[in-house]
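Crash report, auto-generated. Payload:
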Amino acid sequence: MRLRVNPIDCAAHGLCAELLPEWVSLDEWGYPAVYDQPLPAQLVKDAKRAAAACPTLALKLLQE
Amino acid sequence: MRLLTDSGPALAEHLRVHGTLSLPSRGQLLDAVEKAGLLGRGGAGFPAGRKMRTVGAGKNPVVLGNACEGEPASAKDGTLLLRHPHLVLDGLDVAAAAIGAREQHLAVHAGSIALPTLRAAMAERRSNVRLHEVPTRYTASEETALVSFVNTGSAKPLFTPPRPFEAGISRRPTLVNNAETLAHLALIARHGPAWFRSVGDAEEPGTQLLTVDGTVVEVPTGQLLRDVVDLRGRQAVLVGGYFGTWISAAQAREVRLTHRDLRAAGGALGAGIVVTLPTTSCGLVETARVSAYLANENAGQCGPCFNGLPAIAGALRSLAIGPWDDRTMTALDRWLGVVPGRGACRHPDGAVRFALSALSVFAEDVEAHRSGRTCGRAKAPAVLPVPRRAA
Amino acid sequence: MAAPTLDQAPLWYLSRSSGLVSFVLITLTLCLGIASTQRALASPRWPRFATQGLHRNVSLLALALLVVHIVSTVSDSYVSISWWAAVVPGVSHYRGLWVALGTLAFDLVLVLIGTSLVRLRMNATAWRWIHYTAYAAWPLAWLHFLKTGTDAAHGRFGLWIAILSAALVGAAVSARTTLRDDPAPVRSVVR
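Recovered output after restart:
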């Protein structure tokens, strides 16, 4: 599973970084950067929460 | 010359010089294009035949010609439209036949001086091509932005996937080809792949249009850069436009104008744009001006881009003409690292790559400017063209 | 005729009390929903997902009490309101208009909560526009509360709830529409 941000929908609300600080960090303007690698198993549950919490649904959890 | 013949734009002359176009079967056309080894001339250099085969396998495909020429330093597509529009229109017919498309679209910048000639040519052949006049923003002629413009009227890049070849105009598989690519297709359909391959580089064959210091020339592919432009009195060369990179004069003396050679040199051939920088100019001042232009041309959709590019441009400006603060260098390094890859399109990536190449090629100037020694060339006349914009 | 006492009409009291509490919770839900859009209200100790989660949980609690309110109201024989009146506005003869507004509010609450439960599987823009109907649901609930729930012999208590809740929602909505909430300076034109 992989996390990806749709940068057009993203409005820098930052809930993703609150819920998954191990994988998402915010740049100085509040926009998220996520690792472009498969998620470690133990982070998947929080990644699901983070994707669900995004107010614009810009954070996507992809099965790859 | 193949594309840039002496004939005028009228249909009669076009047919006299090139002969009528009789299209072989779809399968034969696809084979011909693949065998010809034509690479797209819009900048990416992707094999045209392979793209056609992929799009042609889809349902109800569509062809979209891109003659917008968003790069300010490029003039080849505009030249084709103005002097040989029937080559481009023939190319659309060829591409449509090769993929089984029943719809043809052509995108041109709104207000282009080629529009009257193009419209006249379309009338001459009673063309069914749907013409789209696209806003002149740099990011508006990116392929997903064009698709978005045709679909919704908004010329802003889209998040991918899906790319246009999978789902584009009206969600149909869309073949996007540069105007020059279309022109080559028009001739491949007439003369065959062997003819096409008979000149130029073995792996990237044919002829190509280059815009060299504003002048459009047609040369066989694979030329040495030094054979195409006079490098005397030049300190660096910009290759590939603003989506390309600077290369030093030393590199310029050795490099060949092919996609693979320039990639190996850490640069890109792009859409064949070559601009030489005289020793009397300052590379950092030129880079700063263009970076400001690129920053202002963002589509306003992605935070890292519309925040990062203006920040980078501002830092380059203070590096170029002062005032300089060493903390700015730290911030600039951070921004250059944090911006690429985080936009929906490759605009921020291109802008960053352009800036990084400047910092590398003009490293001596960077040192001089940082230690406060002015280079005295800030007031030299502008070399890199930047369109004027209403605020 | 004097109002019934608690032992005479327990369901009636349950209906009115659960109605009042669910209305207060609906008011809180709306305010929490607005609060969860404000970056300025987030801090490392109270992150936005906490406000978002509270909004969600309070809305579910409000729904639970709303169901109690509806079931007890319909079950009670003191006033005759059919089961249909719970979801179809205008069917009830008792205080027809005002009950109907409550019914309409309940319908909207069902849609709001229902769509939110399947939010990840539906179109994001559609969800957003449907969620904006919350701004219609609350006034309907308020009018229903005011006109069917504040004339009890308990004094001005209900009236105060109506006034205070209106003030709170008014302040929250006006803040939502006037406060800028951008993350950082947007596009700056570089000279």
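Post-recovery validation: The beta strands of chain B are 62-66, 104-109, 130-134, 174-178, 207-212, 215-220, 234-239, 245-248, 273-278.
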